[in-house]
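Continuing the series of single-chain predictions for the mutant panel. This is the parent chain; the variants come on the following pages.
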Amino acid sequence: MRIEFIDRKSKYEEFEEDYRDAKAYHRRAKQFLEEGCRFSVVFNVASVALERYLVALCYLHDVEPLNHNYTCLMDSVEDIVEVLVELNKEIRSLDLIFGICSIENYYHGLPEPSDADRVLRMCDTVSGLFDETKISDVRILHMKNQEELDIN
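Parent structure:
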């Protein structure tokens, strides 16, 4: 029997990628809004940013996100950082628009113009949940671990 190992990224690498991507999608969603793009485009890009922020928060705190719908992500995030009740509800409500929790009853609702603004506000708030000291500590630890691996 042959066992193959998948070259897997570390949680640190996953964090860095998701955090970088979240900020980029967030920036683009704001840019699209300023340029007068359709609200559905702003909504969809901002929704990706929000999901990436939430996944990055999980990886930053050494938690493996098991699913990428908003309800499951918030189940993980609320265990690692303090999230205002209203924000938690707002984020979870996005699953009603996307309807991605069921293969049999898949539904992708149509976002309203106010939904685009709402998701951008969520991104602004969630981006503020990142503790810069924690990020710095994790980066330093990762560099030390890399140096030890290089020595060995």
